[in-house]
Amino acid sequence: MDTSLPVEFTVWPTYSFRAMGSQISLWVESSARAAQTAFAAVEQLFATHERTLSRFDPASELSTLNRSPNQWLPVSPLLWSVLTWALELAAQTDGLFDPTLLNAVEAAGYTRSFELLEADRAFTPMARQAQHRCLPSTAAGQKGGWQAIQLDGVKQAVKLPAGVRLDFGGIGKGYTAQRAVELLSQWGACLVDAGGDIVAGVAPQGLPGWPVAVAAPSTLPAITPGAEVEAGSAAADEPTAPDLLELWLAEAALATSGVDYRRWRQAGRVRHHLIDPRTGEPAVTDVVTASILATEATVAEAWAKAALLLGMREGIQQLTEHQMAGLLAAVDGEVALTPVLADYVGVTV
Q: Could you say which DSSP state residue 156 is in?
């Protein structure tokens, strides 16, 4: 697909900053002066949401809730909204997306923001398996930790059972990116890239959408959508592989979950941050990355993780049955698209 742009549309005001452990990049179709005001408002939005939702900040509202088991705690509209979204998505994915895996994430060594883990080369995470109580998935006929959370909609209060702690992670970032697009849209057509979670507002003038791409995982060979895929892996010193997919994005979100980036060693084993709720351990899967296209970033985030955990065959099957637009990239180089996503290639979302 040809994504070359007319000259007058090749540059939009843009701004980047760090928040929620990720690089946040913004684009808006407006004057440079108006864009400065818009960007400042969005940066403040991310800062506010991070102060509420961060598990790394002991003073955050989320941390306060996690320290308050077996008691009703009134929460802010923001925390309430993210939590109720998370529980709804946990139900939709049959518990494969589970916001109550903080104990398991910490037991795997992800106890600090990733940039701090990367910076401290001598850091050896302490295994804390005894603190994690793995709650089997609903497929085993038992309740997951997310199902044991009690909500009082009248008082907007939450009661966490003992041993259950929340980690919103990617869904908190996706939720914030969605709100950022709503805010930026006051100034014009816009796009938000929150660490790879991309949310688009309306299309820029004269274009069918914002030109975006799904990047190839570092372990995959160079491939082209629709072409036969060769098995293998790219060497570390080889050029970056071409993108897996390019499309125009408008009023939609594209999220990717993967095991090719946030990795570390613990007791001689390679670990990553995507926990399988069925085992309480970092996922063992033949999928390297899962990318989902949806109208809401939170939905895309949750289903990307669920599909990755399910693996190539069952992941594509479940996405297809739920009419989700998705792309899965496997460790052997195989790439598969659901029928819904295939219909979007090269056209407006």
A: T
107: its two tokens: 């037991």
Burial class (CB in 10 A: 0-12, 13-18, 19+), 126: exposed
CA distance 99 to 4: 40
SS (H, E, C) 192-227: EEECCEEEECCCCCCCCCEEEEECCCCCCCCCCCCC
| CB contact set of 38 (below 8 Å; sequence gap of 6+) | 26, 28, 30, 183, 184, 186, 187, 190
Nearest-5° angle of CA 219, CA 220, CA 225? 155
How distant is the alpha carbon of residue 114 from its chain centre? 15
pTM: predicted TM-score of the whole model, two decimal places: 0.80
Tell me the residue type at 343: D
DSSP string, 243-292: PSEEEEE-SEEEEEEESSSSEEEETTEEEES-EETTTTEE---SEEEEEE
- Give the residue among 263, 266, 264, 316 at the shortest CA–CA distance from 287: 316
Count CB atoms within 10 A of the CB of residue 135.
25
38-90 pLDDT per residue, tens = 999 999 999 999 999 999 899 999 999 999 999 999 999 999 999 999 999 99
Which stretch of DSSP H or E encloses residue 17?
Answer: strand 14-19
Q: Are residues 32 and 14 in contact, defined by beta-carbon separation less than 8 angstroms?
A: no
